[in-house]
Design a protein that fits this description.
The chain has about 575 residues and is an alpha/beta fold. It has helices at about 90-95, 120-130, 140-150, 155-165, 175-185, 190-200, 210-220, 225-235, 240-255, 260-270, 275-285, 295-310, 315-325, 345-360, 370-380, 390-395, 405-415, 440-450, 460-470, 485-490, 495-505; strands spanning about 1-10, 50, 70, 75-80, 390, 420-425, 450-455, 475-480, 505-510, 520, 530-535, 535-540, 555-565. The chain has 21 helices and 13 strands. The radius of gyration is 30 Å and the shape is elongated. One of its GO terms (molecular function) is metal ion binding.
Length: about 575
């Protein structure tokens, strides 16, 4: 059997692009002909790579374009400068487009002492201490600065020698730990071992930071197995961190002890600890030279783990996955990515959880009353199902320079022309005549949509969620609110993931439009951005280098791995 590897969108930092006949606009392809001195290592790792900018025009398309919009008339595509609402980096770009004024902080006063760049003798350290004007301990201050600046180990060592000479050979724990940090940072393994011997002799137990540094420093030495003993010491008082496990796994793989590495990985998962992506990457890097189906199956299990926990590899990790899989010529897989829409069972499950944990059991009563919520529930039940629920106040404030009632009326009017049944949620103050809210415009809004105006202190989000979910899976909602607080109210990761999936498939975002002009709504993604498989293919979204992605955003780059029989 043969695997073909495709990268969705483009990979300018990793691979060179060639034109590819037969692909639609925006597609490109690279052919990889990689040889291996050992021949074919594993039939499950014969892949080719294809870079794609998939489109969302048919159900059979691989991936919908997150940055392309279809014009209202014609089939021409135009590139949108506005990133998708849930795309990685979108929040940062929005903040740059709408910068908030910030007070200029006064820079802290810094000590004027310059850190030495060469080892100093006793007299030179004495002089430097005499010049120190700080109120804290000079020794602790200078070693902290050296750690922050990653100073030379030799310079730090001369400091410790000076301190030891003045204190009958004793160096404090704080100084030792910071010196150890520098030794680990510069990978001075012999110095790490020296500090390790000192600490073993002087201290029966260490604090977690000391254990962690020793573990990281020892894994590169022939005494790496002692890092496993230190891990056991940590277990006596607490659960080791993901970094502790990562270092020990890296050490085991570095020294070819694969069984220990996998055992540590399983132990980490048994503690419900989410492993570092660096840890998972290490297994793929090691697997490049492994001719073992059992090892390959474990790597496929890691891909399943990424999917089940909605984790996204970084660009370097994605490259490691590609390298493990790749070989052969670039071909298209033609597979359909999983839909963003929930199944009927998932929808009913999520609806019940939101009603129980957010609507009934959340904190909405801090900003509304049970009586008002009951009045709203009765109102919704008396109406036919809605097609779109609008957060009126939120939408009205989308264009700060425009009159709020005018903005809301413009949105409602354009949607009403499409024969959509609309619900506008608002506050009672929106009905009072003012500069921002005109009564005649709000009266027109009420003619074209059902409206519910809550008390001015009430919070809109619970009403919006209730009405949208009650109306059925077809109903969409419009708000700029990302609903992070409500997601946090849900009791477990599974429900939170379903909520985020439902949100991505139902939340409409207005990306262009001014009062009187035609609105442009960003299309809703048709596919679910998670690691997914169809058995003979894997599709893996991953984080692009230098793109800052918030927790409520998803990557826009994909790898496609396809198996050919």
């Amino acid at each position: 059997m043969t695997f073909y590897l495709f990268g969705i969108r483009s990979f300018p930092k990793l691979w060179k692009s060639n034109s590819y006949l037969g692909l639609g606009p925006g597609h490109s392809c690279v052919s990889l002909f990689l040889s291996d001195s050992c021949g074919i290592r594993n039939q499950q790792r014969l892949f080719s790579l294809k870079t794609m900018s998939p489109q969302n025009t048919k159900a059979t398309n691989l991936i919908a374009k997150a940055r392309y919009l279809r014009k209202e008339e014609g089939s021409n595509k135009q590139v949108s400068s506005v990133p998708h609402f849930f795309s990685a980096g979108a929040a940062k770009k929005r903040s740059q487009m709408n910068p908030e004024s910030k007070d200029h902080a006064v820079p802290p006063v810094r000590n004027t002492i310059q850190l030495p760049t060469q080892p100093l003798n006793s007299e030179e350290w004495d002089k430097l201490k005499a010049d120190f004007k700080g109120k804290t301990s000079f020794e602790r201050w200078i070693i902290s600065q050296m750690a922050n600046c990653h100073s030379s180990v030799d310079v730090a060592k001369s400091l410790l020698a000076w301190v030891a000479a003045k204190n009958n050979g004793i160096v404090s724990y704080d100084l030792l730990v910071r010196y150890l940090y520098l030794c680990v940072f510069h990978m001075q393994t012999s110095e790490v071992i020296d500090v390790f011997e000192i600490m073993k002799t002087r201290y029966k137990t260490l604090e977690p930071g000391g254990y962690s540094l020793l573990i990281r420093g020892l894994i590169h030495s022939d005494r790496w197995r002692e890092s496993l003993l230190l891990l056991e010491d940590i277990k006596k008082v607490m659960t080791p961190s993901k970094k502790n496990y990562n270092d020990c796994i890296q050490g085991a793989l570095l020294h070819q002890d694969v069984n220990t590495a996998w055992n540590l990985y399983q132990e980490l998962l048994s503690h419900d600890i989410v492993p570092m992506l660096e840890t998972l990457k290490a297994f793929f890097d090691f697997g490049k030279d492994i001719k073992d189906d059992n090892y390959s199956n474990k790597l496929l299990d890691i891909l399943s783990y990424l999917r089940n926990n909605q984790l996204y590899p970084g660009e370097s990790f994605a490259h490691s996955i590609k390298t493990w899989f790749e070989s052969g010529q670039c071909l298209g897989c033609g597979k359909t990515i999983e839909s963003i829409q929930l199944s009927p069972e998932e929808y009913e499950f999520l609806k019940g959880r939101i009603m129980r944990d957010v609507i009934d059991g959340g904190d909405q009563y801090k900003k509304t009353t049970p009586q008002e919520l009951k009045r709203f529930e009765n109102f919704v039940k008396s109406c036919p199902p809605f097609d779109i629920v609008i957060d009126g106040l939120n939408v009205a404030k989308m264009f700060p320079k425009a009159r709020e009632s005018q903005v809301l009326l413009n949105v409602v009017s354009q949607l009403a022309k499409q024969n959509l049944r609309l619900l506008v949620l608002g506050r009672k103050h929106m009905l009072r005549q003012s500069f921002r809210w005109r009564k005649d415009e709000m009266a027109e809004v009420q003619k074209q949509a059902s409206c519910f105006f809550a008390d001015n202190i009430s919070k809109d989000d619970p009403f919006l969620l209730y009405a949208t979910l009650h109306s059925g899976n077809h109903c969409r909602f419009i708000t700029k609110d990302l609903m992070r607080d409500h997601k946090a109210c849900l009791p477990d990761p599974k429900t939170q993931r379903l909520f985020f999936k439902w949100q991505q498939g139902h939340q409409l975002a207005i990306i262009n439009g001014f009062p009187g002009s035609k609105l442009t709504f960003q299309h809703i993604l048709s596919y679910d951005t998670v690691v997914q498989t169809t058995g003979d293919s894997w599709h893996i979204p991953y984080d692009e280098d230098l793109v800052e992605r918030y927790s409520y955003e998803v990557p826009t780059k994909w790898l496609c791995l396809h198996q050919k029989t």
